[in-house]
Every structure is written in structure tokens, then in C-alpha cells.
Amino acid sequence: MRINIKATSLELTTAISNYAEKKVSALEKFINKNDESAVANVEVGKSTKHHHSGDIFRAEINLHIAGKDLRAVAEKDNLYSAIDEVKDEMVREITSHKARQRTLLRRGGAKIKDFIRGFYRENF
């Protein structure tokens, strides 16, 4: 999986970059290993200055896997906790997407099975 990290309204230090890369690379175990087209675009930064009670940090992951785009966003008062939360949200998105695909596949298989059963009963 290719990981692109971008910073908005703050300086992208090596510590932030390494931390974000470590967290996002943990998502690889949920992605098909044969998918060479997997790309994770990570954006970290400060939210706009309209907040009165201190800095609000934002983390966003846009993940493109197997022709599907998944997105997760988190805002926290600490940059590292925002990165942690967005990673957890992306795990939920990926597992939900896989469950939907699996359910669709099983429904299709059940329809085929019912068709074959009906065909078998009519002819034999």
C-alpha cells in the first residue's frame, strides 16, 4: 500500500510523518495483499482559527482500494489522538465495506442455489 502524507496549516515534522505512517500502515492487514492499487492519502493539520478554546487538529484518510474510495475524518485537541481516532474509524469503514461485500456475495450464492434446486425439482 502506498501512503501519501500531507500537512495543512502546520509543519510536517518527521515525528508526525513517522507516527501517521506507522498508524496507517497498520491498515494493511485489513486490505487484500494482492491489491497493488491501494493508496492511502493522509492529511493532518490545524482546523481553521474560528475555535476560541485553543487549537483543534484534524486528521483525514482517503483510502482507495479495489475501485472503492473510503474516507474517515477526526478532529481532536491533540494531533496524535486525532490520528489514532481516524485510524480506528478507517478500520470500521474497511470492515463494514468487507461485510457488505460478503453479504452481497452470499445473497447471490443463495439465489443461484435456489434456482438450481428449483430446476432440479422440475426436471427430476
Q: What does this entry look like structurally?
A:
With 124 residues, this protein is of the alpha+beta class. It has one domain: Ribosome hibernation promotion factor-like (Double Stranded RNA Binding Domain, 2-Layer Sandwich), CATH 3.30.160.100. Helices cover 46% and strands 27% of the residues. The protein has helices at residues 14-25, 79-123; strands at residues 2-8, 39-46, 57-65, 68-76. α1 (14-25) links the parallel β1 (2-8) and β2 (39-46). α1 runs parallel beside α2.
- Give Rg in angstroms: 21 Å
Q: Round the mean pLDDT to the nearest integer and report it.
A: 88
* Cα distance spanning the termini: 52 Å
The CATH class name reads Alpha Beta
DSSP summary: helix tally = 2
Sum up the structure in keywords.
27% strand; 4 strands; 46% helix; 124 residues; Double Stranded RNA Binding Domain; alpha+beta
Write a brief caption for the model:
This protein is of the alpha+beta class.
Q: What's the layout of helices and strands?
A:
Blueprint: E1 2-8, H1 14-25, E2 39-46, E3 57-65, E4 68-76, H2 79-123
Parallel strand pairs: 1-2
Antiparallel strand pairs: 2-3, 3-4
Helix pairs in contact: 1-2
